Amino acid sequence: MFFSGDPTARKRVDLGGRSSKERDRQVLLEQTREERRRRLGLRLQNSSATKIQKCFRGKRDLELARSEVRGNFCSTFGEHCQRVDWSSFGANSDFLRQFLFFFNAKKDSDIAILCQVCNLLLDYVKHGGDVLRLFGGTNYSSLEPLVIHRVKKLALICVQTVHQKRHDWGSQLLMPPESTPKPCGSLLETVACLINPKLAWNCKVVGYLQRKKIYCLFRGIIISIPQTARNLEHNNNTSALEQVLMLIASHIGDDPCCCPVVDPRWSFSSQLLSIPFLWHRLSHFKKVFSANGLSKYYIHQIACFLPSCADVLPNDISSNHPGYACVLANVLEAATWILSEPKFASETAADIIAVCTSLLDALPTITSPTGRADDDDDTPMDDVINGLDADLEKQITAAIDSRLLQHLVNALFRGTISTDYSYPTGPSDIEVEAVGSICAFLHVTFNTLPAERIMTGLAYRTEIVPALWNFIKRCNENQSWPQFSKFVSSPPADAVGWLLPVSVFCPIYKHMLKIIDNGEFYEQEKPLSLKDLKSLVLILKKALWELLWVIPSHASPAKKVLPNPSGFKKLSIENVKIGARIGLSELLAQLQDWNNRLPFTSSNDFYSQQATSENFVSQALLGNTRASEIIKLAPFLAPFTSRVKIFTSQLANSRQSTTSHSALTRHRFKIRRNRLLEDAFDQLSMLSEEDLKGPIRVVFVNEHGVEEAGIDGGGIFKDFMENITRAAFDVQYGLFKETADHLLYPNPGSGLVHEQHLQYFHFLGSLLGKAIYEGILVDLPFATFFLSKLKHKYNFLNDLPSLDPELYRHLLSLKHYDGDISQLELYFVIVNNEYGEQSEEELLPGGRDMRVTSENVITYIHLVANHRLNYQIRAQSTHFLRGFQQLIPNEWINMFNEHEFQVLISGSLESLDIDDLRSNTNYSGGYHPDHELIDIFWEVLKSFSSHNQKKFLKAGVPGMEEEDEDRLPTSATCMNLLKLPPYRNKTQLESKLLYAINAEAGFDLS
User: Fold this and answer.
1) Phi, psi of 72 (to 5 degrees)
2) Using CB atoms within 10 A of its CB, is residue 38 exposed (0-12), middle (13-18) or buried (19+)?
3) 555-582 pLDDT, tens per residue?
4) Do residues 782 and 742 make contact, with C-beta atoms less than 8 angstroms apart?
5) pLDDT digits (tens, 9 = 90+) for 59-87
6) How far is CA 383 from CA 362, 367, 394, in A?
7) CA distances (Å), 294 to each of 205, 262, 325, 345, 422, in order?
């Protein structure tokens, strides 16, 4: 600015309220801090520059010194060691001292010298020379430190050189040393020679190599080897690399070893066992690892660092080859070999179980090859991730085979638990440890891997079902359940000891019940006796009720969020509860199915007394209650009558809701008597789901084209339903067939009879649904296996008797055939014979050329059963079910088993409850309960056979009391009335009544 002429300084005001002195003080402090930071930065720069210069000068001087020594070495011994002999290895010679000083693995010239050194050493050994004398002369004891130093360095640079040249020498790495004089083989054979266990320096040299992270070098070398690199020509020979690994890995600290403890991060277990497909690359090393006690040491080493495995195991391959998954795959693959050894330690089996349980828990859920997580959709784990390499998944899945499971179960239960039920006391601590270990392993396995094959292996190759049952039974009898807190974390209130063993026992036994036959179950009583089955039902029922009804009320929100001290995600108390809940409900439902076929216990044993009250029924109808959860998951705990009340209430609520929405919509159809099915199909198939639920009125047209008399107040529609179901499900029509017991199931050849057969099946499904929806009973006795399909259940071998008992007997005779099955000339094909047309179908790809043998006969039997029960009628059943579910949701029908479902369709086969009917009958037209004719009527009705009583009246499933007030006892007349003329005597009433019910007339009877 320009000078204003005023020499005085103008006063400045700080609007922030600070004085100029305070402002100047802040500026000064900031300047001081900045100066201090600048000086510190400058000192750091100077210090860093000094260190860099010092390091550079050291490296430069070292390289200069190495170059000078290299020059002296070449002038003394020759560039290619021309002037070197065996004496040059001696302690007084400068040969090794100079060479070990200047050697650089990155220089090809130095590597060439190293190869000459190794060849010279190996030549000396092949001529019977003493390696100890070669390096130490006659006075080894006085020169020991110097000699050992040189041997250590020589062995290390040999391995470092192989690591440096691993990509160039890849084809040589797995060749046996004697096959060709390749440099890689010479170097590795030299290392093997230097660490021979017979040499005095062995322990110190191996310890030195381990401190120098030798396993990290071997890791890099092995990873560079392709999985299929081993030449078939040398497949039976051990490579030099494997020989060296065997020698170093076998040095496991036995007395009098002085090796230091190796950091777990650089140990054999973490560096080598985490290599993907290790045994595929080093197949001979696998045998040594499994057989020579190495597995016991190294698997125990893994078990010790498991809690911190995330910090110990390397993950340098790729994200889909995590270290823990590779360790798991390699341990599992070796485990079968390890446990096959006759004298393996039981502690090794326990360590294998512990390692595999922990690593499986960390593994993402592996789906099956078909894309399904498993045959059970209710997996308790919701972190289904597929982040692993596909081949790694296959390795893990294939390793847990029936042989491994058999070895593990036998090893853990050997001498600790038995299938003998005579033990009077509870299990010992050793038994508890064994059961806890195997159950924790299997629980995690079921929640990680596709369980179907694993379950089959456990069922066929092990005695785990009777062993676990013995354990559960003894604990229950002695009222002494262990907590298994080592394996499952749980708050004290939730610590029910039966949770873990039950969560494993139930799915295995459930799977076994799918594959055994009736003879094994009822006659041979395998795997459990019928007496034990009765006890089993009672124990499991009590456990399931406690899990569904009692425990939820005890668990507080605060307890549910407690940490899991065991560290297992899949073994948390909530996941074990879910597994037990699903397993218990499915196993009990399956046992009830077996009991329905041929009772081994009272049907009441499946019911819980607490589920019989009216309060339980009312709670179940509310939804989102414990009672509704029980009806959804374990309906068999409630008696049939309670479930019928719930079902009829659901139907009534649905009908009321539909009526309120479609009060003005009423569909009226004209149906010709002589074209009943076709007219109904053409007209009713056009209705939507809501229209099907609404009122439908029918007018019949007789053969003369005249509408029949009558007002449809519900009776005509019932008559229509009875007639159309009788016509449509008649085997003569071609859509359904009959079993030998005259039970209905879809005709596999329906497509040959009707072009629109699948649309007809959809229509018939909706017809059956409408009948149940309206409470109309129809005479349709379905085969049990087909009713299972309407409940979304899959059919297995033991369902085959309900379709073809003769085929079932033939398959069982094949299963128990003592001779050579291959001589029967059976192949994996099946012949279909529909309406005289024969066609051959393969049960497996290439089945025409696949002979049935003793090894695959079980597979053949189940494939035949699957073809007949499931494959042949899959399309028909699917369309029928879609139509049925338009009116009846699946959760409503799942409340009932197949026998009860048939009762819903056709009513009970038992006689009418005349007393029930009489107490719920209203009278008019001059009649009253004490009228003489009424007494005669009830007497006559009671004297009728069950067949005639059913013709007179099809009583609703809940009985008469549950009927609506306007749904009076009916003989299918329009207004639901029974018109009883004033007959004069009992004989006349009986004859007239029998004539009426057997005339099977429509609305023209008078």
Assistant:
1) -65, -40
2) exposed
3) 444 344 344 444 568 888 888 999 999 9
4) no
5) 888 888 888 988 898 888 888 888 888 88
6) 11, 12, 20
7) 19, 16, 21, 12, 40
Rounded distance, CA 441 to CA 405, Å?
11
**Distance of alpha carbon 46 from alpha carbon 55, whole angstroms:** 14
DSSP one-letter string for 629-680: HHHHH-GGGS-HHHHHHHHHHHHHHHHHHHHHHSTT--EEEEEEGGGHHHHH
C-alpha separations of 174 from 78, 183, 239, 243, 416 in Å: 32, 13, 5, 10, 44
Tokens of 881: 């079910």
CA 82 vs CA 73, 77, 79, 102: distances in Å: 11, 6, 7, 18
Q: Identify the residue whose tokens are 């019989």.
A: 612
Q: What angle do CA 559, 563, 566 make, to 5 degrees?
A: 125
**In this structure, are residues 281 and 238 in contact, taking their beta carbons and an 8 Å threshold?**
no
Phi and psi dihedrals of 1002, rounded to 5?
Answer: -90, -125
Alpha helix (H) residue ranges in 165-282: 183-194, 202-211, 214-223, 240-249, 268-271, 278-281
CA 623 to chain centre: 30
Instruction: Choose the most confident range, by mean pLDDT, from 132-141, 274-283, 654-663, 833-842.
Output: 274-283
The Cα 184–Cα 229 span in angstroms is: 15
With CA atoms as reference, report the closest residue to 479 among 530, 519, 426: 426
Give the HSE-up count for residue 596: Cα atoms under 13 Å, Cβ half-sphere: 19
User: CB-hemisphere CA count at 13 Å for 400?
Assistant: 27
From the list 943, 880, 947, the residue with the least C-alpha distance to 914 is 943
Q: Which of 124-133, 654-663, 951-960 has the highest mean pLDDT?
A: 124-133
Query: Within 715-755, where are the H helices?
Result: 715-728, 750-753
Three-state DSSP class for residue 143: helix
User: How many CA within 13 A on the CB side of residue 968?
Assistant: 13
For tokens 């390890």, the residue is 338
Q: Of all residues in the chain, what percent are helix, strand and coil, respectively (each to 5)?
A: 60, 5, 35
**Cα distance between residue 302 and residue 72, in whole Å:** 49
Q: Which of 115, 309, 439, 974 is catalytic?
A: 974
Domains along the chain with CATH numbers: 78-262 (no CATH), 263-399 (no CATH), 402-606 (no CATH), 664-906 (3.90.1750.10), 914-999 (3.30.2410.10)
Section 886-914 average pLDDT: 87
- Residue pair 306/253 in contact (Cβ under 8 Å)? The answer is no
Contacts 24+ apart (CB under 8 A), 592-595: 592/636, 592/897, 593/897, 593/898, 594/513, 594/521, 594/798
Q: Which two tokens stand for residue 477?
A: 């009898």
Cis peptide preceding 424, ω within 30 of 0: no
Q: Which two tokens stand for residue 931?
A: 């009228």
- The arithmetic mean of pLDDT across residues 973-989, rounded, is 66
CA-based angle 520:411:448, to the nearest 5? 75
Angle made by CA atoms 737, 738, 739, in degrees to the nearest 5 = 130
Contact 748, 873 (CB under 8 A): yes
Token pair belonging to 170: 């890849």
The closest alpha carbon to 190, from 260, 251, 240, belongs to: 240
Q: Confirm if 114 and 157 have CB atoms less than 8 A apart.
A: yes
> In the annotation, is 506 catalytic?
no
Structure tokens at 671: 């149906």
The two structure tokens encoding residue 880: 């029928």
Q: What is the pTM of this model?
A: 0.80
* Phi and psi, residue 898, nearest 5°: -65, -40
